[in-house]
Amino acid sequence: MSSSSLMSLPDLELGLQPGRPAVLRAEPDGDAPGWAAAHHDAVRDAATEHGAVLLRGLKLRDPAATAAVVRELTTGLMTEREAYAPRQDAGERLSWSTPWPANQPMRLHHELSYARQVPGLMAFACLCAPAVGGATTLADAATVLAALPADVVARFEREGWLLLRSYDDEIGASVAEAFGTDDRAAIEAYCRANGIETAWQPGGGLRTRQRRPAVITHPRTGRRCWFNQVAFLNEWTLPSEVHEYLVDVYGADGLPFTTRFGDGEPIDEDVIAMINEVYEMHTTRVSWQDGDLMLVDNLATAHGRDPYEGPREMLVAMADPVRLTATADPGWLR
Fold first, then answer.
1. What is the pTM of this model?
2. pLDDT in tens, 253-276
3. What domain range includes position 225?
4. Taking a C-beta distance cutoff of 8 angstroms, is the pair 244, 269 a contact?
5. Per the database record, which ranges form the TauD/TfdA-like domain (predicted)?
């Protein structure tokens, strides 16, 4: 559905601004799930065309009401695996947002882009907007790709990228939280099935290594997208004092997580800084109101979060699972 056909719908008010998500002003008359069911196609088309769509007026107040609406707008909710940080379960396959420090920005990224099966759609519901800050940041993945240096893109497209993780019970998700079990055999079976190398450490810790494509083809639009967490999960994105502390405690080879080029070579700090700078150049910000719901095309649009003050209650759902199609298949993807 085109922008013009969306705007012609008599009971929807569509706000369109260049570089920003579509805004649909809902009037559910007390039946938010019914409204979502009736406008499913229009909402989904807006998310595909604009990369994200903000639904304002649903007046969502709790997980149950949010889940009822999200189910009407998606084709299947996912259970998260390989989480880098534990989330608090909110029931009905929803969770509370990642407990990232309020005074630090969450850099732009694509959810679970290091997994083989990823959410095609993210749903974010605001039950309580913060007093100051806390906007969700968004960036179009195809635009970011076009803005990155051609030689950097070519290398990542050819080699992919590596995620290196060291699981323990101190920082980030534990082994059991990430894989949904503490059974070694089950964890090893999952990792084999998903192309993850494992190395158990003395004391029960686990180190993993996985190679993933950095550039994908969007299955619905055919656009080439920069889709990864190369910068977000790299050690150089951490505040300098945090990086120094982690290296001192865990060593350069035992960091909770970091990323590398697909051939295993470390990524220079200036490359990570450049990627984050390109993201920032193409970032738009969505400020929240209580009761809002936003659907984000996870393949087409990176998301993050600004620092904030005061309570901020956000629910998250991962939906519409897809397996990625890289723009090139050099052999190691098979």
1. 0.92
2. 899 999 999 999 999 999 999 999
3. 144-277
4. no
5. 24-318
